[in-house]
Amino acid sequence: MTDSGGAGRTLVTGIGVVAPTGIGTGEHWSATLAGRSGIGRISRFDPAGYPVRHAGELRGFAPNEHLPGRLLVETDLWTQTGLVASHEALADAALDPASVPEFEMAVLTSSSSGGVEFGQREMASLWQHGPRISAYQSIAWFYAATTGQLAIRHGMRGSCGVVCAEQAGGLDTFGQARRFTAGDTRVVVAGGTDAPLCPYSLVAQLTNGRLSAEPDPRRAYLPFDEAASGYLPGEGGAILVAESARAHRERGAAHSYGEVAGHAAGMDPRPGSGRPPALARVIRGALADAGLGPGDIDVVFADAAGSPDLDLLEAQAIGEVFGAGAVPVTAPKTLAGRLYGGGAALDVATALLALRDGVIPHTAGTERLAPGCDLDLVRTAPRETALTTALVLARGHGGFTSALVLRKTEPDGTRQGDLR
C-alpha cells in the first residue's frame, strides 16, 4: 500500500528539547547515545534534609540568553523551558508562524505541577514580608500558563489546551493534536515540560512513596532491575511541531521525522476492584488505531516507573501483547529522570530520533532484570537496527495510562511502504 496523499495524517516536523541530557535536540541525542547522565545531586537548594537528594537538573540552562527580561519576571522555569524548546522546534520545522493563519494553529501542552518554584518564592515572600506578592503569581503557577505563553508568543489563536495527566499527559497531547489536524487546524505545537525541583514540590512528590532514596545517583533509578528502588525526578521536556500532511505538503516542506499513527488512553481501575491494569488494553487500542499488529512494532519506549511492582506490571503487559522478549524495549529516561509532564514528550522526541537514525538508545544503569521482567531490554550500548515504527508508553500517578504509535516517514512526509 502506498501513501494516499496524506488525508487525515499528522506529521511531526520539528523537535525542541530542554532536558537534563541536553539543552537542544542535538546535545540531548548525543548524550543519550553516549549514556551520559544528567542526574546528579540537587544544586538549586540544599537537599541534605530530604530523603531524595538527586535529580535530573537543567545544568547550564540560562533562560536570559533566550528570552526577554519581561518573560523572566512573568513566568516560572517550567514555562521558560517550554518557550525555549518551542523556538527550537519551529526553527527545526522551518515554520514561520506568521505564514499560517492564526486561527489554524493550536497549542497543547502537558503539565503535572505548574509553576511550583515561582509559587514557593511568592508564598515565602508573603510569609516574610506581608501582602507583597507578584501580580503574576496567579498566572505563572497555573497549569495552563505554558500553553498561554506559547500561544501569545507565536500568535497561535486556534484551539489551545493543557493536559494534566502526569507522565501520560505528554502522549495525550499528540493524540489530541492528531484529532485537531484532522479538522481545520494546520499546525499544533504539542508536548510538555515540568520544573518540579524546589523544596515545596519535592515534599509533595515524596507523598507518593515512589521516589528513590538510594544515595548513589548511578543506582537510584534502575527500571526493571532486581535492585530497583523507585525513580528520580527531573525537569524540562520537549516541545514538538505537528502538522497535517496536507499543510506540510502545501507549504512545500521537505522535512518530517514521522507520523503520529495511533493513540489510546485509559485509566487503571480502582485499587481492590480485581480488574487488571489498563496498560495492555491501551496498547492494543493504540495498535488498532494505527491499523497495525504487534508484529509491526520495532521498538517499545517503556514507561519504566522504577518501582518493582509497577515495572513488573508493565513487563507483563508488554509480554501479554507482544510475547515474552519478542520486541526490543528501552527506557533512555534513566539518564534524565522522570520529568512528569515533560517526560513522555521527551520520549516521543527520542523515539523519533531513533527512527530517523536506525538506532535504539540503551537503558543506562539497569544490569540484572528482576524476576518476571521477561523483556528484550536494550542495555549496555545502543542497538543499531532498521526501524520503521515505535510504541511509546506512559503512566501517571493516579492511574493515567497512554500509548502512542509513531511511524517513520520519508522527509517529504510520505510513508515508507506498508507494514501490514
TrEMBL record:
- Its protein name is Ketosynthase chain-length factor
A Pfam short name:
ketoacyl-synt
Query: Could you tell me which Gene3D superfamilies the record lists for this protein?
Result: 3.40.47.10
Under CDD domains, the record lists: CLF (cd00832)
Origin organism is Amycolatopsis halotolerans
Ranked from the top, the taxonomy reads: Bacteria, Bacillati, Actinomycetota, Actinomycetes, Pseudonocardiales
Identify the keywords attached in UniProt to this record, alphabetized. Acyltransferase, Transferase
Cite the Ketosynthase family 3 (KS3) domain residue spans from the record. Answer: 7-408
Superkingdom in the source lineage: Bacteria
User: Which InterPro entries does the annotation name?
Assistant: Beta-ketoacyl_synthase, Ketoacyl_synth_C, Ketoacyl_synth_N, PKS_Beta-ketoAc_synthase_dom, Thiolase-like
Q: Does the keyword Acyltransferase apply?
A: yes
Q: Which family does it belong to?
A: Belongs to the thiolase-like superfamily. Beta-ketoacyl-ACP synthases family.
